[in-house]
Specification:
Helix 13 links the parallel strand 9 (261-265) and strand 10 (285-289). It is built from 14 helices and 10 strands. The chain is an alpha/beta fold and 317 residues long. It has helices spanning 20-30, 48-57, 63-71, 77-87, 101-113, 116-127, 159-163, 183-191, 202-206, 208-211, 213-221, 243-253, 272-281, 302-315; strands at 14-18, 37-41, 132-135, 142-149, 152-157, 168-175, 194-197, 225-229, 261-265, 285-289.
């Protein structure tokens, strides 16, 4: 697929939000279309290698940021080799077991430089990334969620607990409730032509971005078009949710934020009328396109997703 540089030599200015494998796939798709990508990445992880580094050193959890950097690496031998180094994970019977080398590298740069965005920029230079990666907040966040049970509403705490809850989640909150956002994240949203939410873990990777006041204000103020990419399968956060439920959840967490496009896989089983009614709450149009990887259930295909993005970008010039 040829690069699409119609908005200048580097392409359209796109902000992609989320974390983990969903954001990785979206960034891999966008890399075919533009070099003007800013990934704004969740910083609420409290499990695994990231959680251990966060607890021991008080740093931002680096794992989702590492994944975004890896997704945007240069496609030559240099970039791909350093991507594999960044993603390498130790397996031992000692304290290094389970740690990602990239997590340690990023954390070391943060401690050396005293600046989270500058540290990520240095790793980006090492990988020759196409774009920029910034955290969604300048401090580590925690997530708490209200879940519906037979006995009423219960609150659970922590990203790892929410992600594995397999519960009917009604609302989430972040702690602290008013964290500072990096200036680079706010500026990228203000200057963007497109802002893309998802795909990804709904309540722990996508919705938290709406909770950061500085980001929320930028979403409202920006002239950028905004797109929500619907997940292909339910997970333990959304086991009872339809595509329309996802959109209604987005609206309930940020009713003052409009969207332009809801992108859904054309092969996904859903109630079209229900989804269109939910999209109307956000002022959005539903676009169905073949974006799934049909050899791997529940995963978007980067090439197919890039083709869908390109068509949508062209339709809203």
């Amino acid at each position: 697929m040829p690069n699409n540089f119609e908005s200048g030599s580097r392409g359209k200015r796109v902000v992609a939000l989320g974390g983990g494998h969903g954001l990785y796939t979206s960034l891999s798709a966008l890399k075919f279309l533009t070099r003007n990508i800013t990934a704004i990445v969740t910083v609420a992880d409290d499990g695994g290698s990231s959680g251990r580094l966060r607890a021991e050193l008080g740093v931002l959890p680096p794992g989702d940021l590492r994944m975004a950097l890896a997704a945007l690496c240069d496609d030559g031998e240099w970039g791909l080799t350093w991507r594999d180094v960044l993603q390498y994970r130790f397996h031992s019977h000692g304290d290094l077991d389970g740690h990602s080398l990239g997590n340690l590298l990023i954390t070391g740069l943060w401690e050396l430089l005293g600046d989270s965005v500058q540290g990520l920029d240095w790793v980006g230079k090492l990988l020759g990334i196409k774009g920029k990666v910034v955290p969604m907040a300048s401090v580590p966040l925690s997530i708490e969620a209200d879940i519906l049970t037979a006995d009423g509403t219960q609150t659970i705490y922590g990203q790892n607990s929410v992600a594995k809850s397999n519960a009917d989640i009604s609302r989430i909150r972040i702690i602290p409730p008013n964290p500072p956002a990096p200036a680079e994240a706010v500026t990228a949203i203000q200057d963007a032509e497109w802002v893309i939410f998802g795909p990804g873990s709904w309540y722990t990777s996508v919705i938290p971005h709406l909770m950061v006041p500085d980001l929320h204000d930028a979403f409202i103020a920006t002239a950028a078009k905004k797109m929500l990419v619907i997940n292909l399968v339910a997970d333990s956060e959304t086991s009872s949710m339809s595509p329309a439920d996802h959109v209604r959840s987005f609206y309930s967490h940020s009713p003052d934020l409009s969207l332009d496009v809801i992108l859904v896989d054309e092969g996904l089983a859903y109630n079209a009328a229900e989804l269109e009614a939910a999209a109307a709450l956000c002022g959005a149009k539903v676009v169905a396109a073949p974006v799934a990887n049909y050899r791997q259930r529940g995963v978007h295909d980067p090439l197919h997703l890039a083709a869908a993005y390109r068509e949508i970008f062209a339709s809203y010039c």
